[in-house]
Amino acid sequence: MQGLPKALGRCAVVGVPVLGLLVALGPAAGASTANVRSHYRHYTGQALVTAKSNLEHMLKNWHGLDSWKGDYGLAGAKASANSNTVHALTKVDSTNWAGYADTGTGFTKVVGKWVEPTASCPSTGTPLAAFWVGIDGFASDSVEQDGTLIQCDNGQASYFDWWELFPTNSVQVVNQVNPGDTIIASVTRSGDSYTLSVTDSTTSSDSFSTTQTSAGDQDSSAEWIAEAPSGSNGVLPLAPFGVWKEYNASVSTATKTGDIPSFTDDEITMTDSSGNVEAQPSGLNIWGGRFNVTFKSSS
Questions:
Q1: At 63, which CATH number?
Q2: Does residue 1 sit within a domain?
Q3: pTM, whole model, 2 decimals?
Q4: How many domains is the chain partitioned into structurally?
Q5: Cα separation of 134 and 219, whole Å?
Q6: Distance CA 126, CA 107 (A)
Q7: How many CB atoms are located within 10 Å of the residue 82 CB?
Q8: Domain span at 89
Q9: Is residue 49 helix, strand or coil?
Q10: Over the range 107-140, which residues count as b (16 or more CB within 10 Å of their CB) and which as e?
Q11: Which of 33, 172, 181, 205 has fewest C-beta within 10 Å?
Q12: Partners of 199 in the beta sheet?
């Protein structure tokens, strides 16, 4: 999925590349394991092949351009004496992204780790949620990204991993994953070569790594994002994913490796067209590599 950046003053607006993947989430927090599994759609054999093909077809012509909403102004770059969190240098609104983005030049690697959330799918409709790391997309019209996604389908959730280089190719759905699995996603650049890897530490057979070539990309941002994918008519309803907890976020250039606030960072809140918050990021922990995104509402 691609993101289109827009800027106001020193605040670049998120143009997030997001999968238009449909992923169904499990039951609400506190639900029993049995209830979670009863609402989790696990495909096997030809059914899995068909499900992945249908998702890719759905996303084939989607470009996921972001619509920038506005600038909250500068936030404190350091924690206060009585705070355990740090807020980004800049806060922005987006209609489809929530999380953090770093901006600069020459990004070579981005890494994120999370436990795949369990969705509470509504009884009707097909809301989606995608979780990913990437290079580009915030301040450019290309993106190199990978992660997981949830598709809800009339009360049932499906979970997949995926990768994309936009505009070189469309979203590629790889494996079905399980809610509760520990996921490590990374994008690593060497020249015009990008290695996109998603490691499922819980179910190793669901992991993948692929190396692709995309020339002329700016490598001007790095992101850790929860996204509402878009379709031909705009941003789709966001699946109720509860809380996405990002751990051990790191980012590198050729000369420096650090956590999120090691570079110029932006804190991104997802809001609908009326300004209602749909997904809210927390501040960063004091080490700068951990934050949460909490589901609030779906348009």
A1: 2.60.120.700
A2: no
A3: 0.84
A4: 1
A5: 10
A6: 35
A7: 5
A8: 6-295
A9: helix
A10: bbbbbbbbbbbbbbbbeeebbbbbbbbbbbbbbb
A11: 205
A12: 184
